[in-house]
Amino acid sequence: MKNVTDSFLSLGHWPSAGSFGFNTDILATNLINLSVVLGVLIFFGKGVLSDLLDNRKQRILNTIRNSEELREGAIDQLEKARARLRKVEIEADQFRVNGYSEIEREKLNLIDSTYKTLEQLENYKNETINFEQQKASNQVRQRVFQQALQGALGTLNSCLNSELHLRTISANIGILGAMKEITD
């Protein structure tokens, strides 16, 4: 094995003029090797790298396109939601206005109903007062009539003697007898 290592070491001592051999200068060989590797990578890897970049570009464009479509969909949904909101607000305003109108109508109906009820109660009150006045008036008339009758009977009893009393009774019996003959 020592011979193999010696032979590689001895190659490093060859003269560089016109001959083929290994360059043991690390800096020079690395640059050359690096350029060869980069050249080979660029030559053979250009297609692969280009495909990878194109695929990545397409994915990014697709993502952007999808995002735009989603954004447009979201904008459409937002507009629809705003339109529905405006519609609901208009309906709510109409319900509110109709509700206020209905409340006002009910209020007026209640006032009218109350006014009519009060008017009926006033009429009932007036009728009751009139009835009670007539009743009281009739009672007063009846009492006055009774007192007048008692007074007249008292006056007649005191003024009538028995003879006058008998003549009055006979006259009344005669009138009643004549009335009986007329009715038969």
TrEMBL record:
GO terms, molecular function: proton-transporting ATP synthase activity, rotational mechanism
Highest rank taxon of the organism: Eukaryota
InterPro entries found in the cross-reference section: ATP_synth_b/b'su_bac/chlpt
Assembly information from the UniProt record: F-type ATPases have 2 components, F(1) - the catalytic core - and F(0) - the membrane proton channel. F(1) has five subunits: alpha(3), beta(3), gamma(1), delta(1), epsilon(1). F(0) has four main subunits: a(1), b(1), b'(1) and c(10-14). The alpha and beta chains form an alternating ring which encloses part of the gamma chain. F(1) is attached to F(0) by a central stalk formed by the gamma and epsilon chains, while a peripheral stalk is formed by the delta, b and b' chains.
Organism: Ixeris polycephala
General remark: In plastids the F-type ATPase is also known as CF(1)CF(0).
The protein's name in its UniProt record: ATP synthase subunit b, chloroplastic
Cellular localisation: Membrane; Plastid, Chloroplast thylakoid membrane
Transmembrane segments annotated in the record for this chain: 26-49
Topology of the protein relative to the lipid bilayer: Single-pass membrane protein
Job description of the protein: F(1)F(0) ATP synthase produces ATP from ADP in the presence of a proton or sodium gradient. F-type ATPases consist of two structural domains, F(1) containing the extramembraneous catalytic core and F(0) containing the membrane proton channel, linked together by a central stalk and a peripheral stalk. During catalysis, ATP synthesis in the catalytic domain of F(1) is coupled via a rotary mechanism of the central stalk subunits to proton translocation. Component of the F(0) channel, it forms part of the peripheral stalk, linking F(1) to F(0).
Keyword Ion transport: yes
Keywords: ATP synthesis, CF(0), Chloroplast, Coiled coil, Hydrogen ion transport, Ion transport, Membrane, Plastid, Thylakoid, Transmembrane, Transmembrane helix, Transport
Coiled coil (UniProt feature): 64-98
A Pfam family per the record: ATP-synt_B
Family, as annotated: Belongs to the ATPase B chain family.
Gene that this polypeptide is encoded by: atpF
GO CC annotations, alphabetized: chloroplast thylakoid membrane; proton-transporting ATP synthase complex
